[in-house]
Amino acid sequence: MAQTTGLTQAIQEYLESLYWLGEAGIDRTPTNLARAMQYSPPSVTEMVHRLEAEGMVATGADGRLRLPA
């Protein structure tokens, strides 16, 4: 039986996009994330706040997003 992670498809897509931005050497900012995902900046900002509240991402003082180690 497959184990569920509790992550929605949307959350998985955001985390994967953040990962691939970093792999491509592109700053992980909400603006770059919105461009990469072709979503509106307000939608991305809302999801980033949700991800921060869940401890899935952190925002540095420079505005860059970090994935937990």
Head-to-tail CA distance between termini: 28 Å
Query: Shape from CA axes?
Result: globular
What does the largest sheet look like?
2 strands, antiparallel
State the secondary-structure class: mainly alpha
* Alpha carbon gyration radius: 12 Å
Description:
The chain has 69 residues and is mainly alpha-helical. It is built from three helices and two strands. A two-stranded antiparallel ribbon has the order 1-2. The termini are far apart.
What's the gist of this structure?
With 69 residues, this protein is mostly helical. The protein has 3 helices and 2 strands, in the order H-H-H-E-E.
State the main characteristics.
2 strands; two-stranded antiparallel ribbon; 69 residues; single chain; globular; mainly alpha; 3 helices; 6% strand
SSE topology sketch:
Elements: H1 9-23, H2 30-37, H3 41-53, E1 58-59, E2 65-66
Antiparallel strand pairs: 1-2
